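Practice record 12: protein with IPE.
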Amino acid sequence: MELKIPNHIAIIMDGNGRWAKSKGLPRTLGHREGAKTLRKILTHASQRGVKFLTVYAFSTENWKREKTEVDALMFLFKSYIKNERKNLMKNKVKFIVSGRVEGVSEGLLKEIKDLEKVTENNEGIVLNIAFNYGGRAEIVDAINKIIKEDKEEITEESFSKYLYNDIPDPELVIRTSGEFRVSNFLLWQIAYSEFYITNLYWPDFNEEALDEAIDSYNKRERRFGGIK
Ligand code: IPE
Ligand code: IPE
Ligand code: MG
């Protein structure tokens, strides 16, 4: 049987803090290491033929953390945008961000917009960064857009168009660091996604681990409520 490659993989990149703690390092170094993992995994996913990669980088609840950690995460995302630009262009990656605008600094929003613009015609993998993202916030924001347009009726298909980005639902959701929860990630889009949870902390996740997740996905029988 030929291996099925998920069109869209979504990853909850969890465990940076615990990775750092286990090595006696500050949490922020875990986040820095996590950014390196993302670079590796993006390349590998693209080589494996994945068309969309969504990664959860900062949730609407992560503002609850200490200011120093939040600031470090903001700074890290800004640096990522700056440092990865060349690499993304070279690999024809289309960069998009899903999340709330409120709370994010003008400077960072501008950097995001610029990179979205320069990569918009790239025809390789789509890298969707969920940043200041919450699944409930996304649904509420969509409903508010619909109300503003005075729409009277909505279908599942038309509703999807009001989400932050109109991309296909993920076939596979991966969560690292062994937690069995969704933490407000893609609530609408994961209705029939397959889940894969690994104990590896995100900085330790690697190409082989992604291949294992894809192998596991290939063993699943997806029924979508029907009978096989
Ligand atoms: C994931 O790692 C990255 C973010 C949530 C920003 P964590 O920072 O949640 O790491 P743990 O879960 O505390 O180990
Ligand atoms: C989810 O991880 C958010 C990101 C990976 C960005 P958290 O670490 O914030 O989730 P909880 O608090 O363990 O549920
Ligand atoms: Mg965590």
